Structure formats: structure tokens, C-alpha cells
Amino acid sequence: MAKIKNMGTSTMKFGEGLIITGSYVDDDTSLTVSGSIKIGLGANDYTLPITDGSADQYIKTDGNGTLAWSAISGGSGGVTKVTYLGYVSLQTTARVVSYDYTNLGATANNNFKGMIIAPFDGTLDAVIVSTKGINLDASNTGDVTVYAYKNQDNFSSSTDVVVAHDAFTQKASGTPNIYSGIFDIGLAVSIGDLIQLKVGKSAGSSTDTIITVILTEN
After folding, report:
1. Of the candidates 147, 130, 133, which has an alpha carbon nearest to the alpha carbon of residue 95?
2. End-to-end alpha-carbon separation of the chain, Å?
3. Measured between alpha carbons, how far is 177 from 59 in angstroms, rounded to an integer?
4. Quick one: pLDDT at residue 32?
5. Residue 151, CB half-sphere, CA atoms under 13 Å: how many?
6. Which CATH number is 196's domain given?
7. Per-residue pLDDT at 31
8. What would the pLDDT profile of 100-123 be if each residue is shown by its tens digit?
9. Are 128 and 182 in contact, with CB atoms under 8 Å apart?
10. Residue 77: predicted pLDDT
């Protein structure tokens, strides 16, 4: 038979200490409570959920004493993001993005400096193109194109995303003068996939450009 022993000296209160011993012989349940459980008194009390939640949920507080089951969420359908920083000399002939800040040219398909290996199953979400030193307009930039290649031999097929110069946003003026544009790629990748990028523009002379590559795990 289950027993409850009062450790206090008067009316039974949880705050004075409560020991519950014994078990329910049918299923070894130590304690069954019908209804909610409130812990603490005053401003620091909180109430536990009365259901068992769903698989992979966690208990989340609203900061006002109520706890509830909640699902883990992540941006763009994933919970892990990996970012790579690269460089390209932005020209009218698309050139390979390098991850050691060297100028790889347009045909360096077999150079390790221009390769990313996907670290998980997920998505090549976006590429941020950030130009340095020029004001973007139709004559010196035109449209900018990012070419994304997955497991391709000699850059044979790509996912292309074009962003016009007027969709770029100036982030810094003076020295340096930086414009950034976001390219939503949405290319599904599997762990171990080879990812290569080229970037080009439709007008103007060469421009030093920083490339930010964002991958998200499924």
C-alpha cells in the first residue's frame, strides 16, 4: 500500500517536505495525479503540462509560470546552418568562386580551391554577393548571375539565379563601398556532394567580390 508521510509539524504542505513511498502493484506506478501539478508558491510558481506531448517535443515556458510542450523548429526547414566565405573577381565572363581568396578564372573546374563538400543532407539555401568599390548601376554592373553546380563534370549543368543591380543594397559607403545582393538558390544536396559556384555580370569592368554561401541541414 502506498504511504504519504508528512515531514511538517502542522497542516501538510509541499513546501515543508513530502515523501511518497510504495507503488501501485498493477503497473509499478509510483504516483498518479489526476489534473495539473503546480510547483512553488507566489511569483516563482509554475504549472506542468497535463499531457505527455508528442515525440521529440520539449517543455517550453512562457515566462509567467505556464509550461507547455513545443516542437523544435529551425530556419528554412533545418536546424543547422553552415556558412562558407569565398572570393571572385566579378566580370562579364562568369568566374569560379575561390575559398582561399585567389583568382581562379573561368575554367578551374578541377581546382580544390573552388570546391565545397556538403557536410549533411540539406539545401544550398542562398548565396550573398557583396561587391566592393563601385556604385552598382546598369552600365558598370547590369544583372548579376550565380551559377550553382552539383556533382558536375566540367561545369556541364547548373542552377542559375539572376539578380538585377537595383536589387542590391548598399551596406557601407566611402571606404569601403559595399553593395550586397541575396540569391535564393534552393538546391537540394546530399552529404558528400560536390558544390561549385560561378558568378558573373552583364556589364562593366572587374570588381572584387565577397561570396557568402549558406547551407541548411534538413
Report:
1. 147
2. 50
3. 47
4. 64
5. 8
6. 2.60.120
7. 60
8. 989 999 999 999 999 999 999 999
9. yes
10. 45
Same domain membership, residue 96 and residue 17:
no
Domain count, the chain: 3
Q: Distance (Å, rounded) from C-alpha 89 to C-alpha 93?
A: 10
Question: Which stretches of the chain score pLDDT less than 70?
Answer: 1-35, 41-43, 56, 72-79
If you compute the radius of gyration of the chain from its CA atoms, what whole number of angstroms results?
Answer: 29
Q: Where do runs of H (alpha helix) occur along 34-127?
A: none
| Predicted local distance difference test score (pLDDT) of residue 144 | 96
153 and 210, same domain (yes or no): yes
Q: Which long-range contacts (CB under 8 A, 24 or more apart) does 190-194 make?
A: 190/118, 190/121, 191/118, 191/119, 191/120, 191/121, 192/117, 192/118, 193/117, 193/118, 193/150, 193/151, 194/115, 194/116, 194/117, 194/118, 194/149, 194/150, 194/151, 194/152
Cell numbers of 17, please? 517536505
* Residue 215 to residue 122: CA distance in whole angstroms: 7
pLDDT in tens, 36-72: 777 776 667 778 887 777 776 788 887 777 788 887 6
pLDDT of residue 177: 92
**In this structure, is the dihedral angle defined by the CA atoms of residues 194, 200, 205 and 207, taken in order, positive or negative?**
negative
Do 130 and 172 share a structural domain? Answer: yes
State whether 197 and 115 are in the same domain. yes
Whether 138 and 186 share a structural domain? yes
The whole domain housing 195 covers 76-217
* Grid cell of 163 as nine digits: 539578380
- Upstream peptide bond of 176 is cis (omega within 30 degrees of 0): yes
